[in-house]
Design a protein that fits this description.
single chain, alpha+beta
Length: 254
């Protein structure tokens, strides 16, 4: 396995010293052992992969996060996206793979992110449901870290954003969509001790997507949004994601 050790060491060092202002996203380059991934595994396997990585390095942290969330709040400040495959053939009803795959992980919390980095640096493969992903390389992306201070920003997701109002799944354009997304962002800002964004609006939305995760539907769409936000919060949300179920791979920011 080829690992960018210098980047990993730099990433862990930065986590220890940059605190809330750090942007920590980890890209894992992978090669699958199958020509497709089962649709139920695309998002359904993500949560188990994340907790498996965390528990392998810090079982107490993984258990505490699983059982109670973070800092007395039920939110799990972890994001993941994948597996994604460049050049994969398009077949109706099939989630095709290619040899050029990647999985992204992130967390805005240094204690969690550093454990993820260590776990991924030691991983030879990721067992993604019924598919095994051989790890070819790991790199910590800490580019484009924004300084503190409010300003306009646009964010685009590469996976669908999941939101709910009561028991209803919401899509961009629905009556409560902006309210629930704003509430989710404000809740995350509160957990992190950062200013909440404002002036949220949806600029563009992708098609409706439906996945089944642990026997229940997850419905959402990719979005491009604009808001006024503190740079530290933008860094955090790029390592976490928009909306609900980010630990299941939803709402990952491109």
């Amino acid at each position: 396995m080829s690992i960018v050790y210098a980047q990993l060491r730099c990433g862990v060092f930065g986590l220890r010293h940059a605190g809330r202002e750090s942007l920590v996203r980890v890209r894992v380059d992978v090669t699958p052992d199958a020509s497709s991934v089962r649709w139920e595994d695309v998002h359904g396997a993500a949560r188990g992969v994340v907790y498996g990585l965390l528990s392998g390095q810090d079982e107490a942290l993984a258990q505490a996060l699983h059982d109670g969330g973070w800092r007395g709040k039920p939110l799990k400040p972890v994001g993941v996206a994948g597996p994604l495959f460049l050049g994969a053939s398009r077949k109706r009803g099939v989630y095709s793979t290619s040899r050029d795959g990647s999985v992204w992980f992130g967390s805005p919390v240094p204690e969690i992110a550093s454990v993820l980095v260590r776990a991924l640096a030691a991983a030879d493969e990721l067992v993604w449901g019924a598919t095994r992903l051989r790890v070819r390389g790991v790199a910590v992306d800490m580019d484009a870290v924004l300084p503190a201070g409010e300003g306009p920003v646009e964010l685009e997701t590469m996976t669908p954003v999941v939101l709910k109002h009561e028991s209803w799944n919401l899509l961009p354009g629905d009556e409560h969509y902006l309210d629930r997304l704003q509430h989710n962002l404000a809740h995350k800002a509160d957990v992190l001790g950062l200013p909440a964004p404002h002036g949220l609006r949806v600029l563009e939305a992708g098609p409706r997507r439906r996945f089944t995760v642990r026997g229940a539907p997850r419905i959402g769409a990719r979005v491009r949004v604009a808001m006024e936000a503190d740079g530290r919060f933008v860094n955090a949300i790029r390592s976490w994601g928009l909306g609900l179920d980010t630990i299941q791979g939803f709402g990952w920011v491109r």
